[in-house]
Every structure is written in C-alpha cells, then in structure tokens.
Amino acid sequence: MSDPIDDDAVTEAGEEPGSGSIPSVAARFALWQQAGGFVVPLLTALVAFFIGGLVVLATGHNPLRTYKAIFDGTGLNWLWPFLGSSSRAAAATNLQQTLLITTSLILTGLAVAFAFRCGLFNIGGQGQYFVGSYFAVWLGSSFAGLPSVPHILLAIVVASAAGAAWAAIAGILRATVGAHEVITTIMLNWIAVWVGEYLFGLGGPLQNSAQKFTPISSDVVQKAKLPVFWGDPLLQGLDVGFFIALGALVVFWIVLNRTTLGFQVRAVGFNPEAASYGGISVPRNYFYAMAISGMFAGLAGAVDILGWQFRISVSDIPASSIGFVGIAVALLGRNRAIGTFLGALLFAGLLTGTSTRHLDPSIFRPDLAGNLTQIIQGLILLFIGADVLILVIWNARKRLRIRRSSA
Amino acid sequence: MSAIAARFEAVSTARRVGQLGIFLGLLACWLALPPLKSRTTVWPAFVGIVAIACGIWAIARVEKRVGWGAVVAGALGIVGGWLATRSSVGNLDAVFAWPALIAATLRWATPLAFASIGGMFSERSGVVNIGLEGMMLMGAFWGIWGSVETGHWFLGLLIAMAAGGLMALVYAVFAIHLRADQIVGGTAVNFLALGITGYAFVDIYGATGTPDLTSAMSIPGVNLHLGRIPGVGRFLETAFGQMNLMTWIVLGLLVVSSVVMFRTPIGLRIRSVGEHPRAADTVGISVYRVRYAAVTLSGVLSALGGAYLSIGFVHSFNQNMTAGRGFIALAALIFGKWRPAGAFAAALLFGFSSALAERLPAYSGSAAVLFQALPYVLTLIAVAGVIGRSIPPAAIGRPYKKQ
C-alpha cells in the first residue's frame, strides 16, 4: 500500500533551510499532512463505528446505549474523576483486561508495521505468535528449578527467536526465489496451527502429562510467571508485559528512525530499485525486516503465555485472532509507533468491551457484540486500504465548493 | 488428430520414463496397502528402487524436474510401504477402505474445488483474492438461511450465490475502482464475512442453532444404482454411486471453466487483463468490466462451495464453519498453477489428505492431524520453486488506473 499522504520524505521536505520564523508553504503543507495522518484514521474509525451502529439499529437495539455499555466494559471509564468507589473497582478490573489485550496487540501490530515499512506485508503474525507461545509454554512449564528472572528471560528470548525464525522462512523465500510473502506467511500460519494441534492434542509430545484426557499444555510454573503490578494476580491483573510492549514501541521507533538498519529498511520500503541503486542490499533487508517482525510477534506470544494465559488449550488455537487484529492495528496506526499504540488501545477496548465477561448482557448480548467487533474490524480494514476513497470525497467537496462560489 | 499426435511425440522419452518412475513410486506404496497387502517389504522396495532408477535415468537426460519427482516418489514409496507392513492388517483395512476413502476425498474436495476455480477467475484477471474464505462463509450461512426460509435447497443455493456475489462486488469496488490494497481488502472481507454471518446467525437462530433440514432443504445426492453392475458394482457404488449433486456440478464446472479460460475469447480477455492490462485496454477491452465480472464470479462460485458445506454436507451452520477451507482453496489454486485442471487436482490431493487425517487416528494417534498441514507445506514448497515453480499472472495485485 503506497501511502503518499504520510511519508517521511514529505515531513523532511518541511525542514528546508528557507523556513525561518515564517513557516514556508512546504512546512505548512507538511504540518497539514501530519494532521491528516491523524484525521484520516480517526474518520475511518468513526465511519466504521457509525455503520456498526446502523447494524445494531437495524436489528432492533439502541446503538448509543450499546456503545456506552461496550465503553463501560473496556474500563476506560476508570479515568472519569466522578466515578463511585464500587464502580471504580469494577472499572479497574476491566481496564486491566483491556491493557492486557493492548499489550499483545501492540506487539502483533508492530510485527505487521515493521515489515510494512520495508514494503512487505506480513500477514503471518498469527503463526509467528503461535510459534512464540508454543516455545514460551514449553520452556515456562519445564526447568522448574531455575530462578525466576533467568527462567523468564530464557522463555522470552527463545520464544522471540522462534517467532523470528518462523517469519524468516518467508523472508528467505522472498529474498532468494522471490516467493510472495503474503502467500508464504498464510501457509506458515496454518502450518503453525496444525503443529499446535499436534503438540498439545491428546497424546501429543507437549500435552499435559497429569491430565491425560484433556488436550491442553502443562501450566507455566509459578516462578516463570511475569509479576503483576496492578490488580489481583489470580484474576488476570496487569503484568509487567505491558512495559515490555511499551519498550518494544520505543525500540521500534529507534531502530527505524535512528539506525542504519532502519534507514535501509525504510529506503527499501520506499523504493526497492532506488535503494538497490544506492548500494543497499534489498534481499538482505527483506530477510532482516521479516525476522524482526516475527520477533515482535513471537514476543507477543511469550508475554501472553507468561503474563496471564499460562497454558495453551487446543480448542483456543483456531479461535485466536490476535495476530490478524494486529494487521488492522498497524494499518490504522499507519505503521507508526504512536499510531500502533493508539490502534492497539482501540481494538483492545473493542475486544474487551464486547467479551462475555465485560459486557452487560441486559443491554446487548455479548455473543452478538463479539461479531459486531468483527464487522467493525472488517470495515476499518476495508476503508483504511482505500486512500483514494478519501481523495474522491475530498475532491467532491472541493468541486462542490467551486460550484457554490460560481453560483 | 495430427496435432494431438505431434504433441504426443513432443514429449521426450526421458520425460516419459520419469513419469513412469513417479507412477512406480506410488505403486510401491500401494502394494503394501489393501487390497494386495504385501506383508514383506521386498516388493515395495523393489518397485521403489526401479522408480528411483527411472528418475536417475531421466535426470541424466536433462529432464531434471520429472526425474527428481520420480526419485522422491520412489523413496517415499519405499518408506510408505515399509510403514504399512509394520502396522496390523485390521488397521490397514479400516483406514484404506478405498471406496469409502475415495468418496470421502470427493466430499472434502468439492468445496475446495468450487472456491479455487472461483479464485482462479479473479486472480487470472489480475485481482488477488484472499477473501475466498469470507465469500465461502457468506455462501454457507445465507445458503442455509435461504433454504430454511424458502423450504427448497435450490432457492437456498441462489440466495447463497447472491450473497457471495454481493460480498465479492463490494470487494471489487474497493480493489478496482478505489484501488485499495488487495491484500488488505481481502483480509477485510474475511473479517466482515465472519462478523456478518456470526451476527446474523446469533440474531436469527440464537442459542438453538439452525433448525433441522428437511430433505427438500438439503442438496440431494445422485444415486446411480451402480451396485447392480457385476463384479466392481459394490466398489463403484460406495465410491461414486452416492455422490452429492454439487460434486457432479463441480466436475461440470471444471470442464466449462477450462474451455472458457483457454478456448474462448472471454478467457483470452480475462487472461490478457491479468497479464498486461495496458495492452488489453489499448485493443479495446474494458479492464474494469472484465475484472468486476471475474471477481464477482469468484464470489458466486466460492459461495456455492460454502453452501455445499452447510446444506449439502454438514446440514447445519456454525460460526466460522469454513475453518480455513478458503485458504486451502487458495493454496490449491497456487499449487495448481492458476489452471482449472491443476486447481482441481490439487483440491483432490488436499481433500485426500483431509480424508486420510480423519481416518488415521484409528491407530497412529495424535500425529494424524499433521496430515491437515500437508496442503500448506506442499504449497510452500511449490511457491519456493522446488518442484516446478508456480508463477502468478503478471499484473496480479496491481490496481489499474485508466489513462
């Protein structure tokens, strides 16, 4: 997806030597473009929510009350200063859950965003997430004798490396034989699904040895769990994985904007031919970009397992879509660090707010709301891909204005 | 007639020997399976070694692809034969009951073939379609809904086609006119279809699920009464005698789509738009119109595959019931090199691996599910170019801007 509205080349064009105290035309233009970078995704999300509201209305429910209930389910009302103490406690539990999902979505969003900046479309975030979580649950549930910190580090590092390796398969294939990464990552996703069904299914090598007839993994040992810093550890409080995700955002920004590797990655993403002419190895950057992407997704799997899931159940494997939501997160966030954070928060809020545990069933049925989330996600993806749609609307507005002024 | 003869002669002897090697490799494994059930490894090993020899002979005469294929087939044949001789006869009979296995393969392959032939039209016209999964799902839900509402499976099929076509049309508007990224659009279609069908399913049928279908509401099977044929009658009856109507339709679709794609002006237009839209535009072909038609057709055909699942096979609907079959269809399309016959053959192969995975737990335990991953592994190998590279249409995924 080429994105002429919001690119670094444009931003940097604003900092010409001529722009002293009075902002030049280019600088003002750049500022406008930057604002557009926030306005367009915001409009997209609003339109998607509006259409979602129409669906709710058409099936005989009140969309405003529904969205209010979903918002309350996210726990973001915790930020309201005038909330009573009992609802504040409930809101805090909800918000902890939202931030837990935000953690995984930031990381799977970065997995998509990093590859995107290199001109690659990594839709294998889901598979890389799985591979990371398989390794995390395996390492986390074995080596019971290890002290806490080395155990956690071991599980996280190996899981991230495993995610990186899984994505690197697609990277190598793209770099050497030119196989399209979309096709290869789709295939790798499903291979990861079935490998998981095998590993943790009945009689599988990593199936829980104590419960012979349940298709689940062993539990992560107590010492390998990430410490919870907000809320009750027994009720899925918020663990330090949240800070790992925030750290990953910073790393993402620094690597892309302040290192040679990041410069090369962006150059390849902007124009592979020009980058290659400038002496940058395109295949090598494809490989690195995919591997780093996969590392983020593998890390997401590790953080989820060590933070609050602690085990993998075979029935959860096909139901998980955290890696796919990462696509919507990254695209809505325009593949930027800050955008990815905001996108992750939005989608985490939606997922938590519509879940059975958090949505008030007297206002809207959670099983309906879960599907409403899918519809809104689909609409956002549909609109965000169509930059031209915004241009068409924009031009139509301009034409309307011209006609009005001439009349 | 002479054209066919010329084509026959054009195939070199080395390639012919290589193909024989591949056949012998399969035969090697088959010897140890029912009905022959050779209980010693000698026969599979002997035939397998002959297959490998054929392969080496072909490689030495520059037919590398077929030659290596024969070597691999021979080696796999020996391993497969050895594994089969080690398992009990009872288990072999249970898993490799050929007529039932063939029938199951066709059942699994039917929805895949519909979607992958549908996807072929879209991709041949230059529009990537990773939304096949979503379009199938639309067909699966609206097919059963229409069938229950109208009381007849035929009207249900029509409604399914309309729903799939509509979903595809929305995608087409974004992919063609608005020049949206086609991968993002396809992903969006999958999410949207999952949401729409799930929402409607919960809203309409709630906790009770879809009602039981009467016989008028489900797609009928075609009973050929093959059992009366002496000798092979029972075999044919179980394998082909009770096939669902949709399986026959997809066989017809295979023939029609092959002819349309490679023998008619329509097919030429679709392919030219997918290979070089500018050139096609220059000679007066409307790129947009061809692409709209092709993408919509892909939605209609995928929806037929989905409707077969719900009202022809399972007789009910569940949320996300396609469970990745659209992606297997996509894999079949790529593995079959964007050709109707190739896609159909790949669908049969992938259907066979599903059918086998369904039966193997009888004795191999948990490892059987790995057979479900076979389609994806094979496709990965195919796009990597190890066994004859799959190369997509030249203009695939690139929106066309009229000048």
What does this structure look like?
The complex is a heterodimer of chains A (407) and B (403). Chain A is 69% helix and 1% strand. Chain A has 407 residues and is an all-alpha fold. Chain A is globular. The model of chain A is unreliable at 1-20 (pLDDT under 50). Chain B is mainly alpha-helical. Chain B has 18 helices and no strands. Chain B has helices spanning 2-10, 13-31, 42-60, 64-86, 89-95, 98-124, 132-150, 153-177, 182-205, 233-241, 245-263, 265-275, 277-282, 287-314, 325-335, 340-359, 361-364, 374-384. Chain B starts with a helix and ends in a 19-residue tail after the last helix. The mean pLDDT of chain B is 85. The chains are: A mainly alpha (407), B mainly alpha (403). At the A-B interface, helix 7, helix 12, helix 14 and helix 15 of A face helix 9, helix 15 and helix 18 of B.
Uncertain segments of chain A are 1-20
What is the H/E order of chain B? Answer: HHHHHHHHHHHHHHHHHH
Backbone shape of chain A: globular
CA-based gyration radius of chain B: 23 Å
Structural class of chain B: mainly alpha
Assembly classification = heterodimer
Number of helices of chain B: 18
Features:
heterodimer, A: 407 residues, mainly alpha, two-stranded antiparallel ribbon, 15 helices, 2 strands, disordered N terminus, B: 403 residues, 72% helix, globular
SSE topology sketch:
The complex is a heterodimer of chains A (407) and B (403).
Chain A (H helix, E strand, L loop, with lengths): L7 H6 L11 H34 L4 H12 L10 H33 L7 H17 L6 H29 L4 H20 L27 E3 L7 E2 L1 H18 L1 H11 L1 H6 L4 H28 L12 H11 L4 H17 L12 H19 L2 H20 L1
Antiparallel strand pairs in A: 1-2
Helix pairs in contact in A: 2-3, 2-14, 3-13, 4-8, 4-11, 4-12, 4-13, 5-6, 5-7, 5-11, 5-12, 6-7, 6-11, 8-9, 8-11, 8-13, 9-11, 12-13, 12-14
Chain B lengths: L1 H9 L2 H19 L10 H19 L3 H23 L2 H7 L2 H27 L7 H19 L2 H25 L4 H24 L27 H9 L3 H19 L1 H11 L1 H6 L4 H28 L10 H11 L4 H20 L1 H4 L9 H11 L19
Helix pairs in contact in B: 2-3, 2-4, 3-4, 6-10, 6-11, 6-14, 6-15, 6-16, 7-8, 7-9, 7-14, 7-15, 8-9, 8-14, 11-12, 15-16, 15-18
